């Protein structure tokens, strides 16, 4: 099969360092026909102009706190047959696009969603989920090694995560794109619900993986403690009016309020919030919900054709190397790997100490995939707490695990 043309759309606002790291990883994507569309504030636009960042990016200036409006702008400039979305505070594995858009060869597949790893680079933040009629996600089991194509059951929808999802451009444009009434919350949920109403199939693709760090923003701190709940309340107000019968809305809202309060109280018990913060945040939630009851929804029709023709980025095919070293050689291994990345390779460095420490994976500023942990420690958190092994066996085990998302590894 010839690769579908893909537009990778990244929205960024006031997080230039995160965007830079994301683009460094995008430059390592192993896919033959993709373009990059960045919709960003001035600081983000400046990042795209730095040397050694992906060339030929389509840059559109936008400095409003509305991710749906920004994604629609990106969509109007995207000329790929498929549009893929990733957040600025996430980094894709090198085979992300290869896996994510493969199901689009089936004409009935309109949407694709991948899996998202969390801060430790190992544990999954989001896997396969389905939405009930009230927008609540529920986990489901799918084959961990291949795409599963799902037709939404009546009254339900297939969940895609905003930081790792793709759509046929014509289908997404046809349903109106993203609704700007959802400024940052429930934006993709609303799209999923509308796709389900149209009977469109969604493919869930476990090997299409990104690492998502939850960077700080105006609405949440680095430790994921909320700073403001106004837009969450407003989004639920809009969601109810679009998707729920009137007789179900009061009970549904009570459940959302109880859920948010439980979340805040957990943070308070852990010492991350004070009682007055809980009161302030809940007040903002109620105020947002009241405004959401009045907010206009539905955006303007989107152009059928892109503003500019497809602009493929010049990303060469890269050799993927794998290096495992003992901790005393870690600094040398990272330095050598950074040199090879600059020369055009994909580098994975596993640094093993003679301990049972859990493993963590990160993508550093030099573009190296770094895994640290104990020789006897867990990588996959479902493994035994402590396992006996040798350095060579552990090296081969980790090589096999990461090759699924980074390709055949040399070294």
Overall residue-averaged pLDDT value: 95
- What is the level-2 CATH architecture name of the largest domain? Alpha-Beta Complex
Rounded Rg = 22 Å
Count up the helices: 11
Task: Return the domain count.
Answer: 3
Q: Globular, elongated, flat, extended or rod-shaped: what is the shape?
A: globular
CATH superfamily heading of the largest domain: Spore Coat Polysaccharide Biosynthesis Protein SpsA, Chain A
User: Which range does the strand content fall in?
Assistant: 15-25%
What's the story with the biggest beta sheet?
10 strands, mixed
The end-to-end distance, rounded to whole angstroms, is 30 Å
Topology of this structure?
Blueprint: E1 6-12, H1 16-26, E2 34-40, H2 42-48, E3 58-61, H3 67-77, E4 82-85, E5 90-92, H4 96-100, E6 109-117, E7 124-126, E8 129-131, E9 137-139, E10 148-150, E11 157-158, E12 165-168, H5 169-174, H6 187-197, E13 201-212, H7 230-243, H8 246-269, H9 275-292, E14 320-326, H10 330-342, E15 346-353, E16 360-363, E17 368-374, H11 391-406
Parallel strand pairs: 1-2, 1-4, 2-3, 6-13, 14-15, 15-17
Antiparallel strand pairs: 4-12, 5-13, 6-7, 6-12, 8-9, 8-11, 10-13, 16-17
Helix pairs in contact: 1-2, 7-8, 7-9, 8-9
């Amino acid at each position: 099969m010839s690769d579908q043309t893909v537009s990778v759309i990244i929205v960024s606002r006031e997080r230039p360092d995160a965007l830079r790291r994301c683009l460094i990883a995008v430059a390592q994507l192993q896919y033959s026909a993709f373009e990059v569309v960045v919709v960003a504030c001035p600081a983000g636009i400046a990042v795209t102009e730095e040397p050694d960042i992906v060339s030929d990016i389509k840059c559109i200036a936008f400095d409003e706190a509305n991710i749906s409006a920004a994604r629609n702008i990106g969509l109007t400039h995207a000329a790929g047959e498929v549009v893929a979305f990733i957040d600025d505070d996430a980094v894709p594995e090198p085979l992300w696009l290869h896996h994510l858009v493969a199901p689009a060869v089936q004409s009935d597949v309109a949407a694709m969603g991948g899996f998202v790893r969390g801060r430790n680079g190992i544990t999954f933040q989001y896997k396969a989920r389905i939405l009930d009629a009230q927008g609540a996600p529920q986990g489901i089991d799918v084959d961990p090694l291949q795409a599963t194509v799902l037709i939404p059951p009546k009254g339900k929808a297939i969940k895609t995560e905003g930081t790792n999802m793709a759509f046929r451009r014509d289908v997404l444009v046809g349903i109106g794109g993203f609704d700007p009434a959802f400024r940052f919350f429930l934006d993709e949920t609303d799209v999923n619900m509308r796709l389900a109403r149209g009977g469109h199939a969604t493919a869930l693709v476990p090997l299409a993986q990104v690492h998502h760090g939850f960077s700080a923003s105006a609405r949440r701190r680095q430790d994921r403690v909320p700073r403001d709940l106004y837009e969450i309340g407003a989004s639920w107000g809009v969601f109810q009016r679009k998707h729920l019968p009137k007789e179900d809305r009061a009970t549904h809202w009570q459940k959302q309020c109880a859920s948010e309060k439980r979340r805040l109280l957990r943070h308070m018990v852990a010492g991350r919030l004070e009682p007055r913060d809980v009161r302030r945040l809940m007040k903002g939630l109620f105020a947002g919900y009241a405004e959401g009851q009045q907010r206009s929804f539905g955006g303007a029709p989107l152009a059928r054709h892109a503003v500019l023709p497809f602009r493929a980025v010049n990303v060469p095919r890269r050799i993927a190397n794998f290096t495992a070293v003992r901790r005393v050689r870690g600094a040398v291994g990272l330095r050598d790997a950074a040199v090879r990345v600059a020369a055009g390779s994909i580098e994975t460095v596993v640094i093993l100490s003679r301990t049972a420490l859990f493993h963590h994976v990160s993508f550093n500023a030099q573009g190296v995939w770094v895994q640290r942990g104990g020789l006897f420690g867990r990588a996959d958190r479902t493994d035994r707490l402590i396992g006996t092994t040798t350095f060579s066996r552990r090296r081969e085990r980790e090589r096999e695990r990461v090759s699924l998302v980074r390709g055949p590894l040399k070294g």
